[in-house]
Structure to design on (76 residues):
């Protein structure tokens, strides 16, 4: 599971909400979140901003589990 999904769910946001905030087609956003489409660099930045991610945008697109995501959040 990509870190972006964990972080989106942690913030209580739907896929549609994040897609709208990031100005990305919802279908394309879903493909990115499912790991089936590599995001454009500008999408990485927009998605990070849409979920208020304080870290490096590219780190949202790494594989993570709930425990490692929580550890990252505790160190941020």
């Amino acid at each position: 599971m990509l870190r972006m999904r964990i972080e989106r769910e942690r913030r209580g946001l739907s896929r549609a909400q994040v897609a709208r905030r990031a100005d990305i087609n919802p279908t394309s956003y879903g493909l990115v979140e499912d790991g089936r489409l590599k995001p454009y660099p500008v999408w990485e930045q927009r998605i990070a901003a849409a979920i208020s991610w304080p870290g490096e945008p590219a780190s949202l697109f790494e594989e993570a589990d709930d425990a490692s995501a929580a550890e990252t959040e505790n160190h941020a």
